[in-house]
Design goal:
It is a single chain. It is built from eleven helices and twelve strands. It has an eight-stranded mixed beta sheet, sandwiched between helices. Strands 2-1-4-5 form a four-stranded antiparallel beta sheet, with helices on one face. The longest helix has 18 residues. It is globular and about 70 Å long. A hairpin with a 2-residue loop joins strand 9 and strand 10. With about 325 residues, it is of the alpha/beta class. The protein has one domain: Rossmann fold (3-Layer(aba) Sandwich), CATH 3.40.50. Helix 4 packs across helix 5, helix 4 runs parallel beside helix 6 and helix 5 crosses helix 6.
């Protein structure tokens, strides 16, 4: 076991049954996540990047066992949590928390802020009364809110403030890993920057590890140390964040990077236009990206699925262009 790694995901699979026919029998499976492996070092941030439907959120939920995987292994701090029962999983639950894309939808509108943040303190530590209230107020201050917000309801806050409440709730049980599922995508640009700075400061202060899910490459470059690119439930490229942005190797990564707006319109970067649209039904054989790839010239692309392999130190690519 690598002592520097907090989370290890090995060969993760999540399939959903496809039913049809007169008796609604199972006729196949939708492969939302198919043989995905990655790791999150202690105190670092791994970004999962891909289009909608690529399996990012499913991976995040599987990684902390909010949903059960179909196959593979999930190791947290060296312990295999893939098949933990409810009792043992609850013991681990406080170490792994999730912050959701829509702050309003993730907060119970019938509970006050104090009740929302205080609930995990009761469930995991049995705190109540003045001690729980003091801890909640401390958490409110930590995320930039005021003590008087304790008795207010979620609908009385802006989107950015609601996300701060969600962050405070996640921090209540002192987790070591946070899964951030596009936490700023529903916020205004100016508020996005504030929330990202808060997440950065919290990571530095508490040594948190982040699994950051996003499709916004600008946000990923600011917050992440390493990036994994996903396409139709498969990882196609993994490298440190600067390598991904300055020397991408997979044709899909190259297309995404080329689409980032340039401050200088005369900058000279040529945009790569992908063929067709994303089809959630991956081809049965070959590379899942081959039907849209601008560089697919090999017969192997449509015949054999390329494995994810290291082409340079710390840089992995799943593409037949790099033997």
């Amino acid at each position: 076991m690598n002592e520097r790694l907090l989370l290890e995901v090995r060969g993760l699979k999540k399939y959903y049954p496809v039913r049809g026919g007169l008796f609604n029998r199972r006729v196949g499976a939708f492969r939302a996540v198919d043989d995905v492996s990655f790791s999150v070092p202690r105190g670092k941030t791994l970004g999962l990047v891909g289009e909608s439907g690529s399996g990012k959120t499913t991976i995040g939920k599987c990684a902390i066992r909010l949903i059960a995987p179909t196959g593979g292994a999930i190791l947290f701090d060296g312990e295999d949590i893939t098949h933990l029962n409810e009792r043992d999983l609850r013991r681990r639950r406080r170490d792994m928390q999730m912050i959701y894309q829509s702050p309003a939808a993730s907060l119970n509108g019938r509970m006050t802020v104090g009740e929302i943040i205080g609930e995990p303190l009761w469930l995991h530590e049995r705190l109540r009364g003045a001690k729980r209230r003091d801890r909640v107020i401390e958490l409110l201050r930590l995320v930039g809110l005021k003590p008087e917000h304790y008795y207010r309801f979620p609908h009385e806050f802006s989107g950015g403030q609601q996300q701060r409440i969600g962050i405070a709730r996640a921090l209540a049980v002192k987790p070591r890993l946070l899964v951030l599922d596009e936490p700023t995508s529903a916020l205004d640009v100016s508020v996005q920057a504030q929330v990202l700075n808060l997440l950065h400061d919290l990571q530095q202060e508490f040594g948190l590890s982040y699994l950051f899910i996003s499709h916004d490459l600008g946000v990923v470059r600011y917050l992440c140390d390493q990036v994994a690119l996903l396409y139709l439930g498969k990882v196609v490229e993994v490298a440190d964040v600067e390598t991904i942005f300055t020397a991408p190797k997979h044709p899909y990564t190259q297309a995404l990077i080329s689409a980032i707006p340039e401050p200088d319109p005369e900058g000279g970067r040529e945009q790569i236009i992908l063929k067709g649209d994303l089809n959630l039904r991956a081809p049965k054989r070959g590379c899942p990206f081959a039907p849209r790839c601008h560089a697919a010239k090999l017969d192997r692309c449509e015949a054999d699925a390329p494995p994810l392999r290291e082409v340079e130190r710390g840089h992995q690519v799943a593409c037949h262009l790099y033997p």
